[in-house]
Design goal:
single chain; about 400 residues; alpha/beta; 7-stranded mixed sheet; two-stranded antiparallel sheet; 11 helices; binds S-adenosylmethionine; SAM-dependent_MTases_sf; S-adenosylmethionine-dependent methyltransferase activity; S-adenosyl-L-methionine-dependent methyltransferase; Methyltransf_16
Length: about 400
């Protein structure tokens, strides 16, 4: 039974996911405000945020400030219940963070100012595996993102988008790592297993969340993370180095369960759709899974994208003399016209599109926090072709 002085596990889990993802504090106040009275429960919330989530001092300062401002502005509820007051711990931590951040700013004051177009990197943390996957819990995936910049120099790949989070969520929902399945909680219609794919390729990989989730959980022999933007690829290389301890630990854990699986080779490269070719003589073999998330946002990029998928699909299908690769595309429905264009072009290029999962706000996930304002609806399509006709 939940005591009056305990935060519900499900609420604490959503709060933790949102804060680790560096969601704007004002946007997630509705998650926090039910836990500001009585004082004991507020203290429990503040201690959890401070001690368990490994957040930067800059972000914590903005979280504490948002809570204090909310409390200051709130009046006594009509139902006779207590008006929240900031607890001592909250006030102390806010003062501590402000001092630490002011000292840091003073130290950095002589450093070059960022250009108007450049964003500020924020270390964002994402769930890396379903909690039941391994006996030992693995750390989160860490990605340096520019959370407040939607497009830097015209490039949208420096933050993780909701369709990418949805595809990562779908992979985590679908993966069954243990051969005995005793710990599996797969709720997806698709069941994926480590080692099932030899070579995964991701198109428009951006920050790499989807690629890292696929590497850690599906353990292909090789994964090629591609993007058209050289700056995105340079950032992706740094992200892979940053996550090296996690990648090594997850490979060791998977090998305990599946000893024959080698540690995945991760390759990054620029690949401009319908222009650049893949390595057609790849020693590992051609891709057997194509992943792509939030790459249908602009009508002008959909045709090259489909042409690129079609090129890889036909190459694999011709070489293998049978079926083509699996293809999963995660699309945010920002405009009905854009999505209709995607579907039309799929059909014109001989693909059948099947919806394997759709996400509609409010989205409650065990693995990620979904910001409702960022995405009205996300659809994950599987593209297939009737290869008997070829
Ligand atoms: C909206 S971001 C999505 C990034 C990531 N998949 C996600 O979901 O967070 C789109 C990505 O596609 C890349 N991109 C756009 N047009 C491209 C093209 N024609 N060829 C290759 N990459 C492209 C961009 O550089 C960017 O990284």
């Amino acid at each position: 039974m939940i005591s009056q002085y305990e935060i519900q596990d499900s609420a604490l889990s959503q709060i933790s996911l949102a804060l680790r993802q560096h969601e704007p504090p004002t946007g997630i106040l509705p998650l926090l405000t039910p836990w500001l009275t009585p004082t004991q429960i507020q203290e429990q919330l503040i201690s959890h945020i401070n001690d368990k989530l490994n957040l930067s001092a800059g972000y914590k300062e903005s979280v504490w400030r948002s809570i204090i401002r909310y409390i200051d502005a709130s009046s006594a509820p009509n139902d006779g219940s207590e008006k929240p007051e900031p607890c001592e711990l909250l006030v102390e931590l806010y003062a501590e963070c402000m001092c630490a951040n002011m000292m840091k700013m003073a130290q950095n004051s002589r450093a070059a100012l960022p250009t108007a177009d450049a964003g500020v990197d924020t270390l964002v943390q994402y769930t890396s595996t379903p909690s039941s996957t391994f006996d030992s819990g693995l750390p989160p995936i860490q990605v340096n993102e520019q959370r407040n910049v939607f497009a830097q120099g015209g490039c949208t790949g420096h933050r993780t988008w909701e369709a990418g989070i949805a595809l990562a969520d779908f992979l985590l929902e679908s993966v069954e790592v243990r051969a005995d399945s005793s710990c599996s909680k797969s709720s997806s219609t698709m069941i994926l297993r480590p080692g099932q794919f030899r070579h995964i390729i991701e198109l428009g990989a951006g920050t790499g969340l989807v690629g890292l989730v696929a590497t850690i959980n599906l353990q292909p022999k090789k994964i090629t993370l591609t993007d058209g933007d050289a700056g995105v690829i340079a950032a992706l290389d740094k992200t892979i180095i940053l996550n090296e301890p996690l990648l090594a630990a997850s490979a060791r854990e998977i090998q305990k369960l599946h000893p024959s699986l080698p540690r995945p080779e991760i390759v990054t490269r620029t690949l401009w759709w319908n222009q650049d070719k893949i390595d057609e003589n790849d020693a590992t073999g051609l891709p057997d899974l194509i992943l792509a998330a939030d790459v249908t946002y602009d009508p002008t990029i959909i045709e090259p994208l489909i042409k690129c998928i079609d090129y890889v699909f036909n190459l694999v299908q011709t070489r293998a003399g049978g079926s083509g690769p699996h293809v999963l595309v995660s699309a945010t429905e920002r405009s009905v016209i854009t999505l209709a264009r995607f579907k039309t072009l799929c059909v014109e290029n001989g693909f059948t599109y099947n919806v394997v999962r759709s996400y509609q706000a409010p989205i409650l996930s065990n693995f990620f926090y979904f910001n409702a304002s960022m995405s009205p609806k996300i659809i994950i399509f599987e593209l297939t072709k009737d290869t008997t006709q070829v």
